[in-house]
Amino acid sequence: MLILITYDVNTETAAGRTRLRKVAKQCVNYGTRVQNSVFECILDNTQLIKLKAILTDIIDEQTDSLRFYNLGNKHTTKVEHVGVSKGIKVEEPLIF
Fold first, then answer.
1. How far is CA 66 from CA 2, 87, 89, 92, in A?
2. If I label 1, which of 30, 64, 68, 74 is the partner at 20 to 30 A Cα–Cα?
C-alpha cells in the first residue's frame, strides 16, 4: 500500500536538527522523498507498524509532528502530479 508520510520537526535547537536528520534518514530507508518533508512509501502492514514506532521514538511529541496518509493499494488513481518532474515510481525497481 502507498503511505504518504509528512513531518514537521522543530529545528530551533541542535537536538531538533538531529531529530530532523534522523526522521529523514528513516524515511529514506523506506521510501522516496517527493518534497522536503514528504515521502511516498510502499509498505505492508508490518513495515508500517515498524516505521511508525521508529519515527515516534525519534520525534518530540511536544514540538514535532508526523502524519501518515494511507492511500492504499489502488493509489495510482488517487495521486495527481502537476509541475516539475514526477520523479520515480516508488513501486517499481530501481536499476542503476
1. 16, 23, 23, 26
2. 64
pLDDT digits (tens, 9 = 90+) for 70-89: 988 766 666 666 677 655 55
pTM here? Answer: 0.79
Binding residues: 8
Structure-derived torsion over alpha carbons of residues 73, 6, 89, 22, reported in degrees to the nearest 10: -120
Spatial CA neighbour of 38 closest among 1, 8, 73: 8
Q: Which helix (H) or strand (E) holds 82?
A: none
Annotated binding site for Mg(2+): 8
Cα–Cα–Cα angle for 75, 32, 80, rounded to 5 degrees: 35
